Amino acid sequence: xxxxxxxxxxxxxxxxxxxxxxxxxxxxxxxxxxxxxxxxxxxxxxxxxxxxxxxxxxxxxxxxxxxxxxxxxxxxxxxxxxxxxxxxxxxxxxxxxxxxxxxxxxxxxxxxxxxxxxxxxxxxxxxxxxxxxxxxxxxxxxxxxxxxxxxxxxxxxxxxxxxxxxxxxxxxxxxxxxxxxxxxxxxxxxxxxxxxxxxxxxxxxxxxxxxxxxxxxxxxxxxxxxxxxxxxxxxxxxxxxxxxxxxxxxxxxxxxxxxxxxxxxxxxxxxxxxxxxxxxxxxxxxxxxxxxxxxxxxxxxxxxxxxxxxxxxxxxxxxxxxxxxxxxxxxxxxxxxxxxxxxxxxxxxxxxxxxxxxxxxxxxxxxxxxxxxxxxxxxxxxxxxxxxxxxxxxxxxxxxxxxxxxxxxxxxxxxxxxxxxxxxxxxxxxxxxxxxxxxxxxxxxxxxxxxxxxxxxxxxxxxxxxxxxxxxxxxxxxxxxxxxxxxxxxxxxxxxxxxxxxxxxxxxxxxxxxxxxxxxxxxxxxxxxxxxxxxxxxxxxxxxxxxxxxxxxxxxxxxxxxxxxxxxxxxxxxxxxxxxxxxxxxxxxxxxxxxxxxxxxxxxxxxxxxxxxxxxxxxxxxxxxxxxxxxxxxxxxxxxxxxxxxxxxxxxxxxxxxxxxxxxxxxxxxxxxxxxxxxxxxxxxxxxxxxxxxxxxxxxxxxxxxxxxxxxxxxxxxxxxxxxxxxxxxxxxxxxxxxxxxxxxxxxxxxxxxxxxxxxxxxxxxxxxxxxxxxxxxxxxxxxxxxxxxxxxxxxxxxxxxxxxxxxxxxxxxxxxxxxxxxxxxxxxxxxxxxxxxxxxxxxxxxxxxxxxxxxxxxxxxxxxxxxxxxxxxxxxx
Length: 878
Description:
Elements: H1 12-27, H2 39-57, H3 65-72, H4 77-93, H5 100-114, H6 123-133, H7 137-146, H8 152-176, H9 182-187, H10 195-199, H11 203-216, E1 225-226, E2 233-234, H12 240-244, H13 246-249, H14 256-260, E3 269-276, E4 281-285, H15 287-293, E5 300-307, H16 313-322, E6 344-350, E7 358-364, H17 376-388, E8 391-397, H18 402-406, H19 414-417, E9 437-443, H20 453-460, H21 469-484, E10 488-493, H22 513-528, H23 542-557, H24 564-597, H25 602-623, H26 631-666, H27 668-675, H28 684-702, H29 708-720, H30 722-735, H31 763-789, H32 792-808, H33 814-838, H34 851-864
Parallel strand pairs: 5-7, 5-8, 8-9, 9-10
Antiparallel strand pairs: 1-2, 3-4, 3-6, 6-7
């Protein structure tokens, strides 16, 4: 394994301690006596330490040594050798004078000092050189004069300080004049443990800290270089590890693909396919793909790419997929004039910037295929992709001129092909609430202009004032784009290279930097888009998206317009059923966990039921979609009650078995006395009765917390003692020779009261069920209120768009009159929605109307000759 491929979640400081306490002592064993070390010997030892420092921090093997060692507070290996030699010197000096080793040591020191101190070899000259290196010869002089040395603790502290100061000074000398260390020494001026490692407590923080350290130790100066993590050529190597590199941006979410092990995360799969049913091509969904999609529980960010035939949609998607950081096959790219993508294909990736979310890419079939006879398929594919995504990328080549804008005339069929609710009279002004963000991508754009791409798009969509058909034809596609897509964004991407034949396999260093930069901008914008949500504010997961696809395709098969309200109702029904199932499973798991830990009595089971239902309610509230009739809420309550009855039966059976085992164990002494005939004497019957009473007292005291089950088991035990009591009575009677038979007290089967049965619903359970119903009601009310405030931003944008359009058109224009009629309606809806957000939501039917004011207004209208304003449109979802 190379260092670059390693991926550690352990804090490098922990690994550093392991190296210093285990590896280094083993490596330097006996180094106190290493008197002859060559340069090659020291270099080999240094290589081991340097490699360990870089592997501990998971940085490149090309990282400068002083950086890798300085971040961990390590010094060169010779520093550790010198420390050991100085400690060995102290040990020899403090040795008992009668030891032979001590005498030899003193003799060799005197001999060394009498001779010339230079040019000699051996342990004594080596120790002398180490003392002189760290300016510690004064301790040698003191030892020769007084034969005394500091204590071991003091000496160890002195040695550590002198060695650290010396090598710290050497490190500063080496780094101060090196331009590669300019940025590094600003952040990390001294060789000590980096604070960023000390602050990293979790595996995620360690991975993030590793990205920062790699940026800090990067000394590359060339303009275009290869990223050491993702192998992509970049011209911004300083910020690539933090902001652009797919491995760093996707580090927090990379384990999502491992969680599911689905083919959707590995390669594109067909989602909407075309088949020949005998009457021409028809659309259908791929069942296997939908099954995989339904397993994704996380919120989805759906990105769809549409556009004309052979404009590079699949290549664009492939580049976006690669930026999500995981290996896998991209979308198929063709090089012929024929269409490559048929229907709609899907591929999933863990979201690169939003933790716990999944980004979904949809590749659609190209529009305007000259070989197609029936163009209705293009309309259906475009509309389905539009309704399924929260960001629609429209890919086109060149400038956004009149020919490109005119292609959007097909949007005029949207009104007849999509409905908000069945049998409703509302117009298409509601559809923009369900349409996604519109992202226009201009490929091969080479014009130099100071105007931004967004302003260029809005400039192309401005209306022209006039009454002739020419002006109406000019404004029609612009009206459709502005009417259905309120959020608009534009990206102008230049030509990637001169010969794009093998663009899909071309390395990045051969592609123009401007193309890569604009592509990064597009990727970052799409990653910032919020997840797809229902109009109730609930994020869409894989199950919901599967239901939407099935509902839309079934409508298309029947040649009916897809109904958004029907799809939302079906999603709510299926998601609420799933919520009930999950809540029931949570309730059962929590009950099993508590019962296995401690078997409860009647009151304890009630407490368990209350606690478990609270936990299940949390799950229900997280998953459930607004349920108007509280049908699924009642189903959840019924599931809780059914499960409670099963647990009651289980607890009752287990409690009785436990009581029987306890009685059998307590009864063993009585059975032994009967076998040994210890009751066969005059007072035997009385002793037997006393033993029975003692057993009953012990049993009640031992198992009293089981309540009625204790009484039931004891009564059952007493019923089985009737024949045994007769046996003891006969045993005692045989011992009474001529004495008159006394009246013996017999054991009564009715001495213990009949136990109470488990109540079907206790008082505690009734209160719990009441609380649950109140929670359901509160959840339902909150759900209704949340719907009104979800549209505030869309309503505001719609009103601004209407005002802008009115300013651009003439008063005689038919579309202008339509907008004037809509303005008051939407402004009134916006004011009511804003009021509902800040205060308590008041239904429109509950707002009192003053009859006199209504009469005055009606008379004023008649006097002025005003036409009656149309009623507010009614949308069942809103």
